[in-house]
Amino acid sequence: MNHLLGKRTLFVAVILVAGCLVFIGALAPDTVVLRRKLMESNNSAVAEAINKAIKERNFPEIQVRVNAVMENMDKVLDYFPSGSLSENSRAMPEIWKKWDEFSKNPSRVKKAAQELADAAKAGDEETVKVRFKALGEACKNCHSSFRAPKPKKEEEFR
Amino acid sequence: MPYEVYSGMAEEDLKALIAYLRTLKPVRKETPPLKTWIPFYRSLFANLWLKFFGRFSNPPAKAPIGGIKRGRYLVERVSLCGDCHTPRNFLGVPNRSLYLAGTKVGPLGDEISNITPDKGTGIGQWSQEEIADLILTGIKPNLDNVQGLMEEVIEGASRGYKNMTREDALAIAEYLKTVQPIVNKIN
Known about the structure:
The complex is a heterodimer.
Chain A: H1 2-55, H2 59-75, H3 94-97, H4 99-102, H5 105-122, H6 125-146
Chain B: H1 11-21, H2 41-53, H3 67-78, H4 81-85, H5 128-137, H6 149-155, H7 166-176
Helix pairs in contact in B: 3-7, 5-7
């Protein structure tokens, strides 16, 4: 009797796990879309806005925009659930193979953003420019290691 | 390899380039065989191509030392920006009417950006400082970074555009701001 119960429990567990995997699989494309939105619309657009504010010496605007980057960095790892690869995404499998290394990047970006916010708060234009570049370097460090280049097309005559 | 374009390089720069190449450690590596559908490529076609389409030019006695002239010299005769950033026809001849306007299918299949000063599809909104920053770091004004071939030429195997002086990067930026803006949306 106990033996049969054990088999049934195992069977139900297997079904549940398989169901969860299918569910996660079904969610993956949405996650990719949301992730792209976060990286392109939010971060790139925000960076452009910060750049514009720097040129206009609008330090309060810089602080507001940098805070948005920091908020994004608090949640960005949630957008990389295990194996969320897609042909619409340039995320590399190395993200999950080297998760410990990858997962340190948002805090590095956040630190660089905080330093930029501090310089903006102090109204120090030269330091703001330097730290804006440092923020770019922090973004680049992650992109270079964990984002694949755009897919290549068939080469023309060369 | 567009080696004929280097014919426009000042002799002192050419000698410096050769001197640098001679400092590199020898590496034993087979050159992969040429893959082409064109018969007699090396013995006939390449020579004919160079005769009709080769971009040979006379080198200046001295390389320009600054400003737009220096930028143009670097773009056209040293860095060869147009070699990737100008689309080619089916014979591989650069389309001069789209000089530096980018291409969706460039060398090795990479998408190559429009770097003319067109404000909508090129880099017309970028300042000279921002262009120089991209050349030296690969980081765009929106803090995204270039990847693919451009990243390779910036980073280099040991040295790349990242090692260029800021003055030279700014001279390139200054020159790029003077070329004909061309509307050509790539990405």
